[in-house]
Amino acid sequence: MNLLTAxxxxxxxxxxxxxxxGIWRFLVVALVLMLSLGFTQLAVAQAEPxxxxxxxxxxxxxxxxxxVRSGETDANFRDSRFDSNYNLINSSGETWRQLRNRWVxxxxxxxxGGMIAVIALFYFIVGRxxxxxxxxxxxxxxxxxxxxxxxxxxxxxxxxLALTGLNLLFGKFVFRTLFGxxxxxxxxxxxxxxxxxxxxxxxxxxxxxxxxxxxDNIPKKHDWVWFKKGGGLVGKGHVDAGFANxxxxxxxxxxxxxxxxxxxxxFVLDFPNYGQGRDTMQWxxxxxxxxxxxxxxVSIGHIYIGTLGTEGSIEGMTTGYVDETWAKEHHNLWYExxxxxxxxxxxxxxxxxxxxSGGASxxxxx
Length: 366
What we know:
The protein contains 14 helices and 4 strands.
């Protein structure tokens, strides 16, 4: 089972390889620039370790705090945001803090930890889903180089954002205790820079990927049967599936709904200079955290099924080809459409030789 789905295989010019290479080069340059920004910020912070202390507010009495909270301010009061009527201390900020620390963070950790525990238990009890029949050695083309490059780029960005987000949310309880303030300061600063700068890139590429894969993810009647039979775990025999089965379509539409909500809320947080107030930023933060934690939990199950959990699934996304037996067992409706295109290793080698000599190779469109 692959991370996402694509269209039926046809032939396109070799220019897709050049485009994929261009995408990778762009991403490498962008990553280098973002890392340089992170190290620059760290260098400045280390050069002036007392800067924050010099600009900190002097000691304030309890009466003054009560005055600020109640709104009874004088001409010396200055708010921290332009054109804002919020007090320095406001109830909405405390509500946000309570929601984030008492509900979102704990239950997000439970969701992710619970998913890992369920997968581990399933693996030790049921084991890996192996092919029922021997491999034929004949291959069917499933993923083009361009689609594989786009898939792995989005997947890599997703994992990076998930790890940096988890570090921002929970890292202080683990790494600060283990490594001390100096290492923890570097980790949190680097995580913040990576998360803020990679997020928009992920959002744009996710939209491109979703548009490219829309056609094969339209729900069909047999998808409901796929869910009722638990993807083949309930009852006997294989369940019908086209190029994308019910589980892959569910993951697609989860990304197309919750994923885009996470991206949109992330843009609100990433660009606070477009007039949004504190209340908007606070709710965007809560929505972003809930959606991101939920997607991270589900993605762990998805990654397991597409790699260790199912024999032959990851081959399509690494080589572009899948074995005939795998296609017949997991995507039988698609197999019936393309079974006459199956090739042996010798035929594939001959086709590759012809492609390198200047001919067109079999690839899927983006």
